[in-house]
Amino acid sequence: MTIFEPTEPVAFSEWQASLPPEYPDSTLLERIRERNRGGAKVVVLDDDPTGPQAISDVYVLTDWSVDALQRELAEPRPLFFILANTRAMPEDRAVALHREIAGNLRVAAEAVGCRYALVSRSDSTLRGHYPAEVDALGDCDGTIIAPFFLEGGRYTYGDVQWVREGDHLLPAAVTPYARDLAFGYQHSNMRNWVEEKWDGRMRADDVQSISLELIRRGGPDAVAASLLSSRRQTTIVNAASYRDMEVFVAGLMSAEAAGWRFVCRTAASFVRVRAGQGNPPIAAGLSKRPGGGLVIVGSHVPKSSAQLNVLMRALPVDSIELSVPEIAQGRAARETERAGALIAHSIRQGRTAVLYTTRTVETRSATDSLELGANITQTVVNIVRSLSSEPAYLIVKGGWTASVIGTQALGAKRAYAPAPILPGVPMWLLGDETRFPGMPYVIFPGNVGSDDALLTVVQRLQTA
Question: d(Cα 40, Cα 44) in Å, to the nearest integer?
Answer without folding.
Answer: 12
